[in-house]
Amino acid sequence: MSMIRILLATTLATLLAACASAPYAQRTSERQAAYAAAAGAPVRHFRFFSLYSWEPLSDSQLAVYTKPNEAWLLDLGGDCQDLAFVNSIGLTSNLNQVMVGFDRVLTGRRNFPCTISQIRPVDVKSLKAVQQQQRQIKSEPRSTDKEATAQ
């Protein structure tokens, strides 16, 4: 009898985890699509003095903000793991330049630094407009019981 309970509990936990991860996966893919739409053509480097903010989009993609209205979409080599779970990152640079193939993202974990394979500038105004559209809720007033029976 207890084996059946364990099996049912495991099945229920798996189903609940799948249901909970579906909205997260959808939000993640929407964020990736918004950044991709706002990203320009690849560049070889960008000027870097300080890291204002950052947002992991996947284990192979990261958005870094060097100023509130200046962002860069970084594609990373396959050596990056669990980027969504790190508390902080760092960027290597040479003479205040972050360069493709040369500089890396440092995650603070014991694994190797993540190699930057592509850099694209992000049009932050365009990105914010796309994100605002994604946040819009389509609402319609509910019909009352009287309206439903009249139709």
UniProtKB/TrEMBL annotation:
<keyword id="KW-0732">Signal</keyword>
<dbReference type="InterPro" id="IPR045500">
    <property type="entry name" value="DUF6491"/>
</dbReference>
<feature type="compositionally biased region" description="Basic and acidic residues">
    <location>
        <begin position="137"/>
        <end position="151"/>
    </location>
</feature>
<feature type="signal peptide">
    <location>
        <begin position="1"/>
        <end position="25"/>
    </location>
</feature>
<dbReference type="Pfam" id="PF20101">
    <property type="entry name" value="DUF6491"/>
</dbReference>
<feature type="region of interest" description="Disordered">
    <location>
        <begin position="131"/>
        <end position="151"/>
    </location>
</feature>
<protein>
    <recommendedName>
        <fullName>Lipoprotein</fullName>
    </recommendedName>
</protein>
